[in-house]
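Batch 3, record 17
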Amino acid sequence: MAQRLIVIGGDAAGMAAASQARRRRGRDDLEILAFERGHFTSYSACGIPYWISGTVEERDDLIVRSPATFREEHQIDVRTRTEVTGIDLDRREVVARDLDRGGEVRERFDTLVYATGAVPTKPDWARDMGGVFGVQTLDDGAAVRDWLDAEPKPRRAVVVGGGYIGVEMAEALVQRGLSVTLVEQGEQPMSTVDPDMASLVATAMRGLGIEIRTGVRVSGIEERDGRVAAVVTDAGSLPTDVVVLGLGVRPNTALAAAAGLPVGTTGGVRVDRRMRVPGMPDVWAAGDCVETLHRVSGMAVHVPLGTHANKQGRVVGINIGGGYATFPGVIGTAVTKVCDLEVGRTGLREREAASAGFEFVTVRAESTSRAGYYPGARPMTVKLIAERPTGRLLGAQIVGRSEAAKRIDALAVALWNGMTVDDMTALDLGYAPPYAPVWDPVLIAARKAVDALAS
Amino acid sequence: MAQRLIVIGGDAAGMAAASQARRRRGRDDLEILAFERGHFTSYSACGIPYWISGTVEERDDLIVRSPATFREEHQIDVRTRTEVTGIDLDRREVVARDLDRGGEVRERFDTLVYATGAVPTKPDWARDMGGVFGVQTLDDGAAVRDWLDAEPKPRRAVVVGGGYIGVEMAEALVQRGLSVTLVEQGEQPMSTVDPDMASLVATAMRGLGIEIRTGVRVSGIEERDGRVAAVVTDAGSLPTDVVVLGLGVRPNTALAAAAGLPVGTTGGVRVDRRMRVPGMPDVWAAGDCVETLHRVSGMAVHVPLGTHANKQGRVVGINIGGGYATFPGVIGTAVTKVCDLEVGRTGLREREAASAGFEFVTVRAESTSRAGYYPGARPMTVKLIAERPTGRLLGAQIVGRSEAAKRIDALAVALWNGMTVDDMTALDLGYAPPYAPVWDPVLIAARKAVDALAS
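Prediction for the assembled complex:
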């Protein structure tokens, strides 16, 4: 008789796990059931700001594989709009509720994959109210679009929080013609890079007409006729027609905790290198709901990102399928487009490096994306953080106007391999005038770091 | 009394060495004399095709630092149009001839840097004749430009050789409005990548109107009134008004060999890891005239490329300056723009891997530069060559329409560090919809290689 795999959560991690398991084990060997509380499976949450802005035209463009595709081509029984409300590990059952028609089912499993994703941080003041949105799911995206299209047309927007989503949403709303204010509690938006690099981003955002209010704390919202009317802050009230929350997310572990799955200090489910829940041989977890190892600091971190979710899901699926795979952790690589700026980072920021106990030097090198004489060469700033005295690369950040963001990849692979900045000066990177100066910006920064370590 | 450093060759390697030595040792400690037979120092030879095409407007844009700058700002006595004709290692003297005014000088040195670059391969049939050009020096570039501008205006061009320079020159001449034929002895132009990848390039070149004749050997040229009139091949005669030679270069070692410097099997001067000539403590060499270690094959190779010349020159200068630096070899990374294609490679091609004795698998993965739904996503082909059974990456090639070439850098750093394709599937590369699909093309190829190794 076939064994039965139940997957809780039908997005990147869950469906990657299910698909990989299916590739290795046919339906006679493994029955696969996936529960998803939303309407969709396997969509690109990262693409939502671009759909809202109109850069991406159709919602369905963001959907990688529909539930029907999973059912028909992969023989995976996907049940959307069905929320798992309980996990009984002793009886090996989950309880699931049909959100549209009501009613509960209990389903038995041999193997369980917990892939519930993350939930947006929602402060006390953010009551459910017309015009207040998170941007987490495709359903959220649809709600924002409907609000922007409906009469009376919103003219002003406040984005609360200056992380990736906040920054991307601020830009999206400007593209939709709204007058946008970004409120950030810290000293800079784009706090995913160091303040000196983030200030380059803030300047570009202001150039786009976005008003940035830093060091400001939101304490409430005001409504009029059931619609948001203003955001109340400790620096006054900001009238607005729409509020977007970009305050980050936390792992969705309510079910896991209730069932006794171990939850770490970051709030994410703990897993071993194979993405198995420690002490529970038939329970696996992956994606935005788990914590993972930061390979530089050696600490547990929660990094919700589609690329990790996909990789972790694949690892789970290979293991369930009878293969062997591990997820070796992350180094914090991320890239973002902000207006006409490209931003990349990997490893630790200064603050993170200090709090992890490292001693280090930092350098910042200015260069260009192409040979200076080649048309289209644009300025680029590369910042490196290198351990003192070893010279080991701890972190890197890039801000540039074009051909900048993905240059972080070479630095990420160097960091992944524990290279020193001295080693890096010799790296054989691609050179031709349309693509790089004869010393690539990455190499110029490495040289500067070598000098800084020697002084 | 100050010691005296003589540098033979005032381009990338020589002047990088001189500048680095000067940074570390003042003029009271070290006198620096640099001889250059051409008119210019430190220019971008790689930029010449773009100057000829008109993409780069001014010749001086290609000049990084003029002789005057070196003299005034770096106290380096640069003597242009002065050709070193002999090296006397016993007496520690060089003999140099003033090419403009005539006359010879003998100059004493304590330390010597040999950085004479490379000379273009010139077949017997390529007599000096109006309209026949190499593209090696800035003076060559000026000659081509003058020829294209002068009456009678050339309408047809034949480029002989389909390496980087040949391909770039074919495109440059098309941009100048000429009707261009590229003649290549091998089966494909762009032989720096495997034939399957090169065929993508050939298709793009044909799309630009370039006629490509492969498997054709040139046996002579015909002239009329002192001007080239046709290229004679074993497949007939090709009438033309200009001929550009893109047949590669060989190390310029005539002087070195005469003086007793060791020359390796590749034809390049042999050096140790610090770029010192073995057995000659005060003689150093760098740039296109030396051979270097290929870190993958373990063999000596000759890879003339500005980025290596600069790095090697820097290493020499640090060592002469009293510091410590090594050049650890190359892995064959290169990027090229061909029409609207971007081409990148690193490591070994299939043919090279086989002749180095490796067993391997190859995979080719099709993907896109950005998330498929994001505007501007373009197709990209990534090919990987992985050792069997270890999975160690041996080589990689990329051909794409945009944001493709520099993706080779992540692969180059992975290869540099001896990563396996299995390790690579977990790499934390930058992901955001404007920059990559959730599985970067590089990771998709790595996954495919893992599968190929398992089957």
